[in-house]
Amino acid sequence: MERESRGGGRTCGSFRSTWIPRGKAVNAVLENARMTPPDCPQLPQTTAEHQISPEAIREEERFELEIPERGFLAGPRSRLHDLGTIFRVGVDFVRAFRTLHFVGPAVTIFGSARTQPGTTYYEMARKMGAEIAKLGFTVMTGGGPGIMEAGNRGAHEAGGRSIGINIELPFEQHLNPYVDRSVTMRYFFTRKTILIKYSYAFVVLPGGAGTLDEMFETMTLIQTGKIRNFPIILMGKDYWQPLMDFVYHMAESGTISPGDPELIFFTDDVSDAIAHLQRHAVRQFGLRRQKLPKPSALFGEKAVAKPAT
Description:
This protein is an alpha/beta fold.
């Protein structure tokens, strides 16, 4: 009996993919490579073109060693490695929970890190950040440049609270200078959880794959009832129109519910976006201005200070 293994090769009989200690991986793979057709009759004869060289295997190991998270997503690991991953994920969450415990109700702004200051969408995000802050919300972004910087900048300039949830990357993403409080996450999935956890609304401006991921994960959580029906405001009609056409196409095809496109409020008008936010976040959830609880020095907590005016 022959079946596909995780790595794309084939296994034979009752053989299955198992974790091999890193130090023995190359020798074990090379030993398996020496199997002949009589040992495994159903295994097709590999050609030189498809053989994996020892150099290629060592290169893959170097690739995983450069950044530990690559190994985390590379298949089964030892129990010790998995325990270490669980610990690091827990540290990521605990650090964020303690840092952001006093941010108050927030609105998260998603968008590209590549948008340049002075461009249409940068200024749109900046205005949204300012207007959101005037409503009393904390403005939360991924903490980087581009749309993220614009949202934080608008909140900062309006005298509101401005938060950045940064991410460790091989090419380091520096925090923008308009963040009052920040936390740097190790994993993308923990970062995304934090960006959603504290927010009562989500504003999505033009961005790439990461922005799409954030938007559709939020939409999925609302669809499945994992979070409340928080407003999603999609801004940048010229940029996002093909996406909205596709969302309606999915509804017409029956792959999402007919009412799911209505989860997205599509506009370029900052005033309309703020009015929608007021109706579907402030009033719908009964939000009102009140003093935030005081931080405890015992737990090393600090309040989020507003910028000096």
